[in-house]
Design brief:
By secondary structure, this protein is an alpha+beta fold. The chain is built from four helices and five strands, in the order αβαβββααβ. Helix content is 33%, strand content 25%.
Length: 147
């Protein structure tokens, strides 16, 4: 099912939702990661994510509390709908153990989160011709699955 049809089907089962605004995206930088993270979201293990603030395009809006998101697998198929519950911007080295746990990946510890995200952000910042450091501003988002 394509994203637009998935959204219309979702709204038909949730008449209280009156907005047509949603974002649709896959997590990660590889097909395997996108599929794994979509699965973790769907089963409720992954309820948070982190982005590099400086990696957003100038005209790209930040997620906002109340926003709906359609999580996609590696092939662009909708897996589930989430709703953003909390957003905050903090330096990389101040991301909390709680947030790392809610990201739902690996052993869910802060030390593993920092190791994996440091590697991920280093690559992403290089692609953007920027330099990663432990004080980069991170956009932390908490969400819940609503379908």
């Amino acid at each position: 099912m394509d994203v637009k049809t998935y959204w219309q089907h979702f709204k038909a089962h949730h008449p209280e939702i009156t907005t047509d605004h949603y974002d649709a995206y896959a997590f990660g930088s590889s097909d395997a990661t996108a599929d794994l993270l979509a699965h973790l979201v769907k089963i409720g293990q992954k309820t948070a994510t982190t982005s590099g603030v400086e990696l957003y395009e100038a005209d790209e809006p930040f997620p906002f509390v109340g926003e709906y998101n359609i999580i996609l697998d590696a092939q662009g198929n909708p897996v589930c709908v989430t709703q953003t519950k909390v957003t905050e911007t903090v330096p990389f080295d101040q991301v909390s153990q709680e947030h790392a746990y809610h990201e739902g990946e690996d052993d869910r510890t802060l030390s593993t989160w920092r190791k994996e995200h440091r590697a991920f952000f280093t690559r992403e910042y290089q692609v953007a011709e920027q330099t990663f450091n432990d004080q980069i501003p991170c956009f932390c988002e908490v969400f819940e699955v609503v379908r």
